[in-house]
Design brief:
2 copies of one chain form a homodimer. Chain A is mainly alpha-helical. Helix content of chain A is about 75%, strand content about 0%. Chain A has helices spanning about 1-15, 25-40, 45-70, 80-105, 120-145, 155-175, 185-225, 245-275, 300-320, 325-360, 370-400, 410-435, 460-490, 500-530, 540-545, 550-580, and one strand spanning about 460. In chain A, helix 12 packs parallel to helix 16 (about 550-580) and helix 14 packs antiparallel against helix 16 (about 550-580). The longest helix of chain A is centred in the middle third of the chain and has 41 residues, at about 185-225. Chains A and B meet through helix 1, helix 2, helix 3, helix 11 and helix 12 of A and helix 1, helix 2, helix 3, helix 11 and helix 12 of B.
């Protein structure tokens, strides 16, 4: 590492200096030192800080333009924002292509790879999301072709560049996301962080467009029902569509937005892990893949999960149909949603509590080793919970402040909000507990979703060392136990001496069932708001207490965060399932 | 650590089990295991997560009430918020008193203390801020006494409880902030995190009150000048003041708000460090105080800094006088502010660049050891920069979007905004570089402002080990060098062989001067907005581009963050000064 070589240089430099009397020698030394100083490798932390500041400011420029766009003024239009994002995507494209070409040429030595970064299943999932994103780009191109005579050319260029960007990025994810960059580190840091924040900006843009579209429909619906007479700003093109499919394109587009949004935020997180990995030295002992786990004894969990998923889809369809109709059906739809929500959240709380109880009863050891990726997972979980916690507490305050004699709806809403807070807390605890448990004594800590290798420079992870020493000692024992597990699965009558092992096996089954049930519930709770089921916008209580503007702002922030939370929980629960 | 004892239990448990044929024995084992499981110490990470979630939700409840209060509706009033905060303060008071009493009783063994947490100078500074906060409470009590017949009793109880809370907290900071808690860890985690978020909520409340007061004055001024005819919601009491000092109290209160605000946010950060330290094992080798450094050769830096401070105070006074007068004087005051800002920021950029250049020329080694406190410092710096970066980029977008032929004011504003971004970036880089440089080879890394000991469990910080090994080896050399430095200070004609040491001494002088200059500039840039100099609210460009509501929201978030950034930079630069 550069820091160690610097130390050696210092040790040499601060030793007793040899005497030299010539001033020109001194000047030459100073000059050569200056030359060396300005050309040597930029220190790790400084490069990180510099690149982080660059990326952050890039994002903030984009956010400023979006804020101006939200005003719908004449000065800042959608074309300006799309031009900015197109330029960023082109820069990222250029960097990725250079990187991939350089990697192709430098076949030897084989670059180090972090085996835990970007597992196959997550890359597969992202590829599917990317495909849907490409379909979305195709729709945008189709829409442009229809209105090309009166809309800006940027609206045609943007989806083309986005499609190329998506294809290259997927290729990059499959073949280079695991790379641990060791050459041209400072330059690559900028490249990777540029990619992180470009995807983050694309996520922001998607969220904003989708929220605007939702609010437009919401206001139109309220106006139709007679509640609201705010005129919505219509931005339809002035010319006629030259094809017959324009309205089909523009409508279908919004069904694909949720996938596009999740694609960008997940890619952003994966690239962030790659950025953290730059310059790291891998701990080879633990850089091996986890063996796959057998899944048997799964019945209740999957069944209950499928039931939850089916009911969620039903609720979604019924809600979307009835909320557009009359006032009564709208209120009935909203009540139905909240009742469903209360039942669902109560079951999820119960499942998480059961899981936590199992962990308290079980003596599996905790994994106390340093694991930055796990910290990142935990921070993402807790951070993305903030949005819906704020939304829930606002609902609680509104329900508490509502005049006496409020409708029974108020109590359902209160129960829903409190349960939402409780459910997220318990689920977070369950996931964190699972991630911080060592599953078996003879295996290293499993890979996380976003895996960053702990830094080697200056830190030795004793957790890993101790594991390896224990590996040899426990190998024999653990294999004996595994054989025991193998015999016992499905065998009801066992010798009493093996009853503890049976209990452990049963606990694992329980945990697996709980995990898969929670997995499917989180998928359900992602589907509902992603496809338009957002009754919080309809809520009169909060609108009266906080004002329409403030409440809408809270929701516009909380709902995208909640969507990310559900997706991330899905990924975390899948890892927990594999671990158990 | 509990995790290690758990490991030992597992090693015993997963060994070859002894045969036992009686079913009641098995049941007894299960029962005892259940009993042990539910009473044993709660794992470290789970307790952290649980307490963090508790604290976060506490804060979000408060924020929801504040959002409702901002609406000025009949349902949620100031008394409700103050009641909630009073209850939180009382709970914290009770916890602190119990803690202090318990510590008094348990004199042996002496609890471990983190020598780096809460340095004397920072506690001294916080004590001064607390004193000003107590004066503020006295004013509030005075105000209540004047209007007690028609305002809620809560407005009298709150300042009394706040005063008691402040006094106990200061005592706690002086005698217990360094404690590394090892008993009743889970309970204490909740106590400490409760204290963290109570102070954070007090900070939010202070920021909100202060912003509301500022906006009220701002709107009144605009109305007087004929720009705005929005009627402000006046919340004056309905009865007459029974003393002659009510208006004096209510006016003076707002001059003390900045100190109260900074007090709470800094205490919150220190308590957060204490929370992170719970259950940690100290690395005794490096838990020693840093020797004090000599400060000689300081002239240019302090002079320039004092000049900056004097000009800032002048600008503040002139601005506050002239902005209330006519339209012309108002515009002149704003232009004066921006010109001053451009000059100041350009000088600060220059100083930070010079400092970074010195570091590139110097070969002082980097300190690559794990140091969570330093990471916290860096994160706080970068995080609190976000607000003013967003504000600046919004100004840039507004200036770029403004119609052609805009005033020259637009270009000054553009230059100011760009320089503000650049100045913060460069200052952050300079501070991070300074914190990550090892000052002398024979000393361990210096304490950070908010110091958290690296965890011992599972991680050995080789950086510290290597330092100790090097300590012995380099002691002789370093003392020889120090003698050399001592001889050389002030000695112009030196042997050529010692020229490198002279150069190093000179570089240190340059860095000290730069640091002290930046220190005083940051103090100046804190004073200006803290005492009402906020011309961004007057800016027409941004208001037209983003809308009054959005722009005001951005400012209401950005300016408090910027104030915290300046304070934190002041503290960081002081540490850098001591290090150099």
């Amino acid at each position: 590492m550069v820091e160690h070589s610097l130390d050696i240089m210092c040790l040499n430099k601060y030793g007793p200096s040899s005497s030299s009397s010539s001033s020109s020698d001194g000047e030459k030394k100073l000059f050569s030192k200056l030359k060396v100083s300005l050309t040597k490798k930029y220190p790790h932390k400084n490069a990180q800080t510099l690149s982080a500041q660059y990326g952050t400011n890039l994002l903030l420029i984009g956010v400023s333009v979006m804020l101006a766009l939200a005003q719908h003024g004449p000065a800042v239009r959608e074309e300006h924002l799309l031009t900015f994002i197109t330029v960023l995507m082109l820069v990222q494209l250029a960097w990725m292509i250079c990187y991939m070409i350089r990697r192709e040429r430098e076949r030897s030595p084989v670059p180090e790879r972090d085996a835990h970064a970007g597992t196959s299943w997550i890359r597969g999932g992202l590829t599917m999301l990317a495909l849907l994103s490409l379909i979305m780009d195709a729709f945008r191109i189709g829409y442009f072709v229809g209105y090309h005579s009166c809309i800006s050319a940027v609206l045609g260029v943007y989806p083309i560049v986005h499609a190329l960007h998506t294809i290259s990025q997927v290729h990059f994810l499959w073949f280079h996301i695991k790379d641990v960059i060791k050459k041209y580190e400072t330059f690559e840091r900028f490249g990777v962080i540029h990619a992180v924040f470009t995807n983050l900006l694309l996520w922001c843009n998607g969220v904003m467009s989708e929220a605007e579209h939702f609010l437009k429909n919401h206001r139109r619906r309220l106006t139709a029902l007679g509640y609201d007479n705010i005129t919505t700003v219509e931005v339809e093109p002035h010319c006629n569509c030259t094809t017959s499919a324009c309205s089909m394109f523009s409508t279908s587009l919004y069904y694909l937005y949720p996938f596009n949004i999740e694609y960008h935020i997940f890619v952003s997180a994966m690239l962030f892990v790659m950025w953290k990995n730059i310059g790291r030295t891998l701990d080879r002992h633990c850089n091996r893949k986890r063996p796959s786990t057998r899944s048997s004894g799964l019945l209740i969990g999957p069944l209950a999960g499928l039931l939850a998923l089916a009911s969620s889809v039903t609720v979604l369809v019924v809600y979307l149909i009835h909320v557009e109709k009359s006032e009564q059906t709208r209120e009935a739809a909203i009540s139905m949603f909240y009742c469903y929500g209360v039942v669902m959240l109560a079951c999820m709380c119960g499942a998480s509590s059961a899981g936590l109880l199992v962990y308290r009863l079980e003596d599996w050891p905790m994994d106390t080793g340093a694991n930055p990726s796990r910290t990142l997972d935990t921070e993402l979980l807790l951070g993305s919970s903030l949005g819906s916690w704020l939304m829930s507490w606002c609902s609680v305050v509104a329900a508490a402040a509502a005049a006496a004699g409020g409708s029974s709806f108020r109590w359902i809403c209160l129960a829903y909000s409190l349960l939402l807070v409780l459910e997220k807390c318990m689920q977070n605890l369950f996931i964190v507990e699972s991630l911080y448990r060592r599953s078996r004594e003879d295996e290293p800590a499993p890979p996380e979703i976003f895996s960053v290798m702990p830094p080697y420079d200056g830190i030795v992870n004793r957790g890993y060392e101790t594991q390896d020493k224990r590996c040899a000692a426990l190998d024999a024992e653990a294999s004996e136990n595994r054989q025991g597990f193998g015999r016992m699965n499905g065998d009801a009558t066992v010798p009493a001496g093996n009853r503890l092992n049976v209990t452990t096996g049963r606990k694992r089954q329980i945990l697996k069932n709980i995990t898969i049930f929670l997995f499917m519930c989180n998928v359900s709770l992602w589907i509902l708001p992603a496809f338009g089921c957002r009754p919080q916008y309809e809520s009169v209580l909060e609108t009266e207490t906080f004002g329409f503007s403030a409440w809408t702002t809270v929701l516009n922030v909380a709902i995208p965060m909640s969507l990310f939370y559900r997706m991330h929980s899905v990924a975390s629960l899948f890892e927990v399932f594999r671990k158990v």
